[in-house]
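This section describes the prediction task in plain terms. A model, or a person checking by hand, is given the sequence of a single protein chain and must write out its three-dimensional structure as a string of tokens. No templates, partner chains or ligands are provided. The sample shown here is typical of the held-out split.
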Amino acid sequence: MPWAATPGEAATAALSRRSASGNELWFGTFEAGVFRFAKGRWSGFAETTGAAPWSVFGLAEQVDRSGRSTLWAAGSQGLARFGGERFEVLPASLGLPDDGYRSVTVIEQDGQYVLWASSNRHGVVRLDVTDPAAPRLLTDARLPAAPDPTVYSVKRDSRGRIYVCTNNGVQQLTPVAGGGYAERVFRRRDGLVHDECNSNSQWIDQHDRYWAGTLGGLSVYDPEIETTGAVRAAKPLRVTALRVNDKPLPVADHGALHLPAGSRDLHIEYSLLAGSNEEQSQYRSQLLDYDPAPGPWSGEHGRVFSKLPPGEYRFIVEARDFTGTASEPLELRLSVAPYWWQRSLLQLGLVLSALTVVVLLVQLYNRQLRQRQRELTLLVGERTALLHEANDRLTELSYLDPLTGIANRRRLMEAIDGALQRARAQSLPLGLIVLDVDHFKDYNDRNGHLAGDAALRAVARALESATREQDLVARFGGEEFACLLLDADQVTVARIAERMRALVEALPPRALGGDSQTITLSAGILSRVPDPNDTAVALLEVADGALYEAKHAGRNCVKVAGEGEGLGF
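The expected answer:
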């Protein structure tokens, strides 16, 4: 092999195709691009930019109805097309993410050829390659996002089902009428020996069985194994909890609920008693005469209504289990009583009385107008002072995150800019910690957004408790936090970051707003005396890179900027 003498070089992908000159073998390599073996000779190909090394992890051939063949390569420099003499990397102007790719698959449907590319950090990227010379990026809200941004492969069986192997389970996409796909995600609870897939280790055999090589071994899914009739039978759908103004109510079977006047919040929880795979049950609901249409199907099994207007309502819940079997809809009748002053005749009398009072007040105002004009100068001065106080308060509030009560992103960026000037002038080290709550979307999906908000507040309190008096903790966005540390060397920054990680890991579920699930966080840190070119954005990007290494090192850990080993293959 041409790469045999290069230490550490290896073949990472292989493809066989028939051309006008006979059979050809194509190989992707770990660093040296693509090689072709044809007519007993080897030929090497680099990509157009000449960037080295060029790691190629996936090869695919597209043959259109006229017999024209096009080769596609997925690798570290992006997606590349073979035009007959060389590989050309697709330009960024197509809207492709700035990312590496692990595999590429061409799927033909109804005369359209679509290239499905597996990216390192942006899920599945799709291109219309019906004309290979003019690819076009596809975006479709009907295509469910991959369960993890790191995707290893995309495979399609003979019935059009598509399997997406990721760092967090295998996604099965089944075409549905009218376009789009129905989604199912397989993880350890469904038989996978490990949730994280491996590169170039997935296959679909002649019986449409899907084989997935994972970090923990090999699993196989056979779609022909039918579930029993009992599994496919409709399951009962029940109301499991009712709360009005945070007070629990007994769950009655008569399907009617009467709310007194002034009811602030109504919380309804329901559940499909499927008996297995209940976390995959789907629900949607509609409050007639309030919601314009049923909501989307989701795993949420509860609704909260705030300050419903007085009246009569019907609350309808639909559910389907993991096999897609629908249950009989659940109906709950609601009646909200009005206050005494909300009744029609009384409201009319109140309006007439109010008009009379307004007329009297206007007359009184006209008599006092000249006296108020004399007092106007003094009043303007008092109001100006109050306005200054209000502006000061608004400025203070603009620096706080409304959910957690800690500093927000704006406050953090201004603080870093000021700290950079001080650190440069005194040649003192400046520390940064960027933290991200691990699997926070899964936590939100499992426990609900109210529990997610409670968890973020608990994390913020834990982070602040781990810092020194001069340090600043801020919510950077979503489930991401950051901490600015003044006069802090790397040992100090690492110790505080580890204390933060340990305190969050030790938080009890009740403090997080749930019953059983805990959370962890990953962190990236840096500490250095800033040079004249350092900016707040640049330092945050360096720390965020270390955070990315912590995520790929297994999460729930701290990584120092510049010391990570990066991803392995």
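For orientation: The chain has a mean pLDDT of 88.
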